[in-house]
Design brief:
With 357 residues, this protein is an alpha+beta fold. Helix content is 17%, strand content 39%. The strands form 4 sheets. The protein has a 5-stranded mixed beta barrel with strand order 1-2-3-5-4. A 5-stranded antiparallel sheet has the order 8-7-6-9-10.
């Protein structure tokens, strides 16, 4: 074999920037790794170009990419990071294609999610892709509190799937929610509307309470917390509380829950004692242009429409009823399904004549 043949051989030919070469480790120190490249001489990996995640020992055979084919001392300057990164992308592409679930640990967080490195590739796990138990449910979308909650997930192992990746754009998006999808769907499949479930409160917000039911996210809307009017959900529960609720609807992997429906409806209980035409005593609680509201029992607030305040035409309800005064009224309608009780101040004879007409 001539010298030209030797140089043409890919194993001993001249190195080019970007080439991937293989060598045997001569020495491995914290900031330097020396490689025997055979006929190609000696290679040196220094500083940031060392992939510290690799356990490198003398005698190991490893691959590196060429940064400089020959420095002033005659050594090839190499990088382990580039080869490791390429292998990392290949590994992630395989995991993506297979839908593999694997564990990761975030090294940092920002208000949008968690920063993660997998096989030497930097990735991102958005807040929206966290599981029900880790999603930071914060009242009023308090960004500082969201960041505080996310920082609590740093250095914790999370099982994820690759949601999206693009080697060319250096893009890697991970999802904890997707990793739990089959498990979540399996749990939801065993649940039915009207079931009573127990869950852990994961968030209290202005419009309701988020509850983790065995890994499935549920929401108790503010209107389903209690039979009484609820102004502030946080006065009923706090994060970490265990609560019981009734499933009132299921939407794919989410539950709509009700806490109040596990207790008797006080409106129906009180209304059962009345019939149309009964006389009741009530206190005027609100006056509006279309009538007045009257508290009949602690659970029942009834309406006296403006047309039922007097036998004659009424322009302003406040001329006939005063806020806070107690009067006797006659029940003219009961709608149990809508929770509505209608009252009248008109004389029975006039009201009946109007009905007949």
């Amino acid at each position: 074999m001539t010298m030209e043949d030797l140089l043409a051989d890919s194993q001993v030919g001249a190195m080019q920037v970007g080439d991937v070469v293989e060598g045997s480790v001569i020495a491995a120190e914290k900031h330097e790794v020396w490689l025997d490249l055979g006929p190609r001489g000696t290679g040196l990996v220094v500083g940031r170009e060392i992939e510290h995640s690799q356990d490198i020992n003398p005698g190991d055979t490893i691959s590196a990419s060429v940064i400089d084919p020959e420095d002033e001392r005659g050594y090839a300057i190499l990088s382990l990071k580039k080869v490791a990164k390429e292998k990392g992308w290949e590994s992630l592409e395989e995991r993506y294609a297979a839908g593999e679930i694997f564990g990761v640990m975030a090294f940092d967080a920002n208000k949008g999610g968690l920063l993660i490195e997998v096989d030497g590739i930097r990735g991102f796990l958005p807040v929206s892709q966290l599981s029900a138990e880790n999603y930071p449910r914060v009242s009023g979308a308090d960004k500082d509190e969201i960041l505080h909650r996310l920082n609590g997930l740093v250095n914790k192992t999370l099982n994820v799937r690759v949601l999206d990746l693009n080697r060319r754009d250096n893009k890697l998006i991970l999802s904890e929610k997707a990793a739990k999808r089959e498990d979540t769907e399996g749990k939801v499949a065993k649940m039915k509307v009207a079931d009573t479930v127990t869950g852990l409160v994961t968030g209290v917000v202005d419009f309701g309470i988020f509850v983790n039911v065995d890994g499935v996210e549920g929401l108790v809307h503010i209107s389903e917390i209690a039979w009484d009017r609820v102004d502030n959900p946080s006065s009923y529960v706090k994060v970490g509380d265990k609560v019981q609720a009734k499933i009132i609807s299921i939407d794919r992997d989410k539950l709509s829950l009700s806490m109040k429906q596990l207790t008797p409806d006080p409106w129906l209980r009180d209304a059962a004692a009345y019939s149309v035409s009964d006389q009741v005593e009530g206190k005027v609680t609100r006056i509006t242009p279309f009538g007045a509201f009257v508290q009949v029992t602690p659970a029942i607030e009834a309406l006296v429409h403006i047309s039922e305040l007097s036998d004659t035409h009424v322009e302003d309800p406040s001329t006939l009823v005063k806020l806070g005064e107690t009067k006797k009224f006659r029940i003219i309608a009961i709608d149990a399904e809508a929770h509505k009780l209608s009252l009248s101040l008109k004389s029975p004879r006039k009201a009946d004549e109007k009905t007949e007409k």
